[in-house]
Amino acid sequence: MLFEDILGQEYIKKHLTQSVDNNRISHAQLFVGPEGSGTLPMAIAYAQYILCSNSQGENNTGNASCNLKFKNFSHPDLHFAFPVTTSDKVKSRPVSNNYLEEWRKLLNDQPYGNLFDWYKLLGVDNKQGQIGVDEAIEIVKSLSLKSYEGGYKVMLIWMAEKMNTACANKLLKLIEEPPNKTIFILVAEDEEQIINTIKSRCQILNFPPLAENVIKQSLITNYALEDSVATKIAHQSSGNYNKACDLIYHDTEDLQFEEWFVFWIRSAFKAKGNKAAIHDLINWSEDIAKTGRETQKQFLLFCLNFFRQALLLNYNASSLVYMEPKTESFKLEKFAPFIHNANIIEITNEIQDAVYHIERNGSAKIILTDLSIKLTRLLHKKSN
């Protein structure tokens, strides 16, 4: 993977390549950035720069056969770990090596993809994946072997926040004192979910969201979009290239999420003293509960973002508002006055609590019904 193919993040590219050129490679690094910012492709390009003895800031100057292996993400000294779960293919004790074919497909098709895209590819979006202790055993085993080409070995752990405690504890000593010429690259979206003992052993590199202009230029180049269309999509993507690509193909789950959200909000508004609307909220909760847990979590995070956008619009920060509802007769301008300083914190806390309980396998129907009833009260709360 060439650095020039990775969008933006020029300072980070320069920092990483110079650290290799100056032989100052940290043995454990944590790349943290929001979805669609390029943490995963950057980590792969960085691993290629190290393993293939590239120089001059690009991955086409070193070992040609080594660089060729990276085109298929099949270099024997590059090891991957990522969240997995049981499926029709693997019935028990799943590990990343069971899903390398699917993983390489994701890297080829959606290098900026998110965890939801990965679960959809595996056909397990009704489950929650993790990086468990079986994975840790595989990592220890693979890194105990000698390097295939006699140089460095790289272990790339994607979505490192999905490591459970047992896995993290088993890897602590290895991350702190890895074998000679062994490098850990951890990639994460939420640094706070990684246990402190792992974080303290890593050099942390923070990735900002991509600039609108960077996304716009890429859309024009790669998808031959008109300038005005590319500008609009880049603005709506909010620094997330994965979302921008979804918007082009109309493949984004946001369209379905918006439909659920609008029905939810309208029912919650009507529910005060209205039994029929209460039944609508209960039925709505049952319908959402039938979807996978990962879908439920993604939807609630979408709702949280929708409320924040409404708040920004209500307080005249329209330059920060990128959301444009597609539903006819539902206008963000009309909804915004109902989201204000007196209810936004409570709404945010209730949604985050719901996500927390769903992650821990609580009854989605009960969690969503409870959230809906609380929302009914909060939406009717007057501004201070």
Keywords for this entry:
single chain; 384 residues; alpha/beta; Rossmann fold; 3 domains; five-stranded parallel β-sheet; 17 helices; globular
Could you characterize what this model shows?
The structure is a single chain. This protein has helices at 10-21, 39-51, 64-71, 100-109, 115-122, 133-144, 165-176, 196-199, 212-223, 227-237, 241-249, 254-270, 275-289, 293-314, 332-335, 344-359, 364-379, and strands at residues 28-32, 78-81, 153-158, 182-188, 203-206. It has 384 residues and is α/β, with parallel strands linked by helices. The chain folds into three domains: 3-208, P-loop containing nucleotide triphosphate hydrolases (Rossmann fold), CATH 3.40.50.300; 211-252; 254-379. The chain has a five-stranded parallel sheet, with helices on both faces.
